[in-house]
Amino acid sequence: MTISVRDLRPSVRADAEGFARVRRLALPFVLFTPESIAYDIGHMHPDAHYRPLVAEEDGETIGTAQVGLAHDSSEPGQAYLNIYVQPDRTRRGAGSLLVRAGEEYLASVGATTVFAWVLDEPGNRAFAERHGYRPSRSAHFLRLDLANHDLPPLEEAPQGVELRTGSDFADDPRPLFRLDAETISDEPSDIGHEFTEYEVWLEETWRHPLFSPELTSVAVVDGRPVAFSMARTDGGVRYGTVMTGTARAFRGRGLAKLAKNHSLHRARAAGYTEAFTGNDADNGPMIAINKWFGYEIRATEVRHVRELG
Q1: 126 contacts: CB under 8 Å, gap ≥ 6
Q2: What is the pLDDT of residues 93-128, one digit of tens each?
């Protein structure tokens, strides 16, 4: 069997389908579709130098790599290399070929430090360490059975707080951009992110094909969004929250929990049967909120890091 690595061709439907299939088999807790993969490639910021790769065995996609620079980091040279191989096609050399191709490319575009998410399983961690990566922080994938689990009862918003949906901001989503930028800057992470470009946020978040403004919940005070739970769906029965947070001045009031509960209830009413989310392992408050809803940790990833050169 011959294994080779090449660039993903976003205009070829079979390429996007193969990429999505491998990612879903290896990482079933994150929403992907062929359309979302093609969209990500076509709308990634040029400074990211994003280059998705696929590993093929006799013409069949068995491995994938997301390769690029963290363009929104305040520290230059930060890069990512996330590799996933079809679970029943590991130990054939596809992962090593993807690592080599990805690192060579990143070095050519100025990367100095490479971060890689690795599923917390002995074989995966050993693979990362053999290639010179050392473990850093961890993150959990959580799942909630929306079809069979009783959600907490809906609560009325406190006095002075109004609950809206993301659709209510369709004419001007900039207030949601400001809230997203504030909350993500406080997220635990190896790479500090800064949302400073509104148009980029519109392309990568608001207009993303998986984003659901209808199921996104927003708590508003005096016309200003102060807490939200941002939702995505895959067009089937899978729903995910990709960011839930509160503006600093309004934390400690339960507003994020309130917004997420309303989003979950609407998702279940709309026919979604599985809910997914992710949390940094050090984000105790959000983990506690998700366990209160009934989410269960289904897998853990460990971020690994390697200095190039």
Answers
A1: none
A2: 999 999 999 999 999 999 999 999 999 999 999 999
Q: DSSP 3-state assignment of 107?
A: helix
Shared-domain flag, residues 27 and 77? yes
Residues 140-176: b if buried by 16+ CB within 10 A, e if exposed: bbbbbebeeeeeeeeeebeeebebbbbebbeeebebb
- Does 39 fall in a domain? yes
CA dihedral 258, 262, 265, 271 (to 10 degrees): -140
Distance, C-alpha 133 to centroid of its chain: 22
pLDDT at residue 269 is higher than 70: yes
Specify whether 97 is located in the same domain as 148. Answer: no
Distances 110 to 46, 200, 211, 235 between C-alpha atoms, Å: 14, 22, 32, 38
* The pLDDT of residue 149 is above 70: yes
Domain of residue 87 covers 3-111
- Note whether residue 235 is domain-resident: yes
Neighbour order of strands in the sheet with 78-85: 3-7, 53-57, 60-69, 78-85, 113-119, 296-307, 134-145, 274-280, 238-246, 224-233, 217-221, 161-165
Phi then psi dihedrals of residue 171, to 5 deg: -75, -25
Q: Residue 178: inside a domain, yes or no?
A: yes
Query: Given pLDDT bands bounded at 50, 70 and 90, which one contains residue 197?
Result: confident
Same domain? For 97 and 173 the reply is: no
Structural domains of the chain, count: 2
Residues 37 and 84 occupy one common structural domain: yes
Specify whether 156 is located in the same domain as 256. yes
**Domain CATH code at residue 45:** 3.40.630.30
CA separation, residue 245 to residues 17, 30, 130, 252, 277 (Å)? 32, 19, 37, 11, 13
Domain assignment of residue 117, yes or no: no
Distance of alpha carbon 6 from alpha carbon 281, whole angstroms:
34
Cβ–Cβ under 8 Å, residues 262 and 220 = no
The whole-model pTM stands at 0.92
State whether 13 and 95 are in the same domain: yes
Enter the tokens of residue 150: 């009783």
